[in-house]
Write a structure and sequence with these properties.
The chain has 337 residues and is an alpha/beta fold. The protein contains 13 helices and 5 strands. 28% of the residues are buried. The mean pLDDT is 90.
Length: 337
């Protein structure tokens, strides 16, 4: 089965493979090497895969093109169609097929608001617009935005992995912009070797339990349960109708006096709610590895995964505790239950 020339060219552009395909197909077929012929066939396959349903297509393309970068919605430059989208069909397919991400690996307290403001523009003008040419608002299943939560650990020292407050605060703010629709978000949890905080390369990152594979499946399930529990509570509060008593609405986050104080705006109340959510999520995550055995298991596994030596200080010494047996990680939601 072959794609029409126009659709193949569009798929190649969306996959950022047009230049390579053009060079390979320009070679005389009688002089092409076996490897060049094989690569052309692989690119043809990827073009066909691009037309598969999204849940299948993304898995296929991420496997074959691991370096294919999704579009960062926090960058205003990405809010306009590329110059090569010269017709409505090309633009329609571009927005529908290009993966989106809210980039968090470079997130800081300084750039958080600018990123959120840019994401708000993308969500209003493109993702949830009923008049945008791509009609992403009507897609079923919903168009996803990848959101990565980084568990940072300095593998040269050891210790326990933690999540930056800005990373979680961005999630709650993004959830507000999406009106609580978690269906628009694809959460990913990433181990980050933070030995050099300025190094954001792929070599410093590993997804937690990729394809739900060992040894971190239970940790990934717990992380997802903890974050989703906090998100559900925040969404319930956010979407509460005006008829709900404010003391009831804000009971999880605020004392009754603050919940009913006319001098306290909802913006301030939501800021308190975000701080509460961030504190509780961080706390429950840190409780996942409070024992020497659990910290040692995680540190030992990550050092092997990143191919770095086990640190020899107190944090490194804990790695030997896991030889007592692979620890269990029972779910504990604490105040998020």
């Amino acid at each position: 089965m072959a794609l029409p020339a126009g659709k193949k060219r569009l798929a190649l552009r969306l996959l950022n493979l047009e230049a390579e395909y053009t060079v390979l197909t320009a070679i005389n077929p009688t002089t092409r090497t076996y490897e060049e012929d094989a690569r052309i066939k692989e690119l043809d396959f990827l073009c066909l895969a691009h037309g598969l349903p999204s849940e299948v297509r993304n898995n296929v393309l991420e496997y074959y093109i691991p370096g294919l970068e999704p579009l960062d919605i926090a960058d205003p430059a990405n809010h306009v169609r590329p110059t090569w989208c010269t017709d409505d069909e090309a633009e329609f397919l571009y927005w529908r097929h290009t993966r989106c991400i809210f980039r968090t690996d470079d997130l800081t307290r300084t750039n958080l608001d600018n990123k959120i403001n840019a994401a708000q523009t993308f969500i209003q003008d493109i993702l949830r617009s009923t008049t945008h040419p791509a009609r992403l608002f009507y897609m079923q299943p919903k168009k996803k935005v990848i959101f990565e939560i980084y568990l940072k650990i300095d593998l040269s020292v050891g210790g326990a992995a933690g999540i930056d407050d800005e990373n979680l605060e961005a999630l709650w703010k993004l959830l507000e912009l999406l009106n609580g629709e978690m269906g628009h978000l694809q959460l990913k949890f990433i181990w980050k070797n933070d030995t050099n905080p300025d190094d954001l390369s792929a070599a410093t990152k590993r997804e937690v339990a990729t394809n739900n594979s060992a040894p971190f499946v239970a940790i990934k399930q717990n992380l997802l349960a903890i974050v989703l529990a906090a998100a559900r509570h925040y969404t319930t509060c956010m979407q509460a109708p005006a008829t709900v008593n404010p003391i009831t609405r804000w009971a999880r986050y605020l004392p009754p006096m603050t919940a009913t104080d006319p001098a306290t705006t909802d913006a301030h109340r939501f800021a308190f709610a975000r701080d509460w959510s961030t504190l509780r999520v961080s706390g429950q995550v840190s409780r996942m590895w409070t024992t020497r055995n659990k910290r040692g298991f995680v540190l030992w596994s990550l050092c092997g995964m990143f191919n770095v030596p086990i640190p020899r200080d107190d944090g490194g010494a804990a790695t030997y505790g896991w030889w007592m047996g692979t620890p269990t990680f029972p779910l504990d939601l604490g105040d998020l239950a």
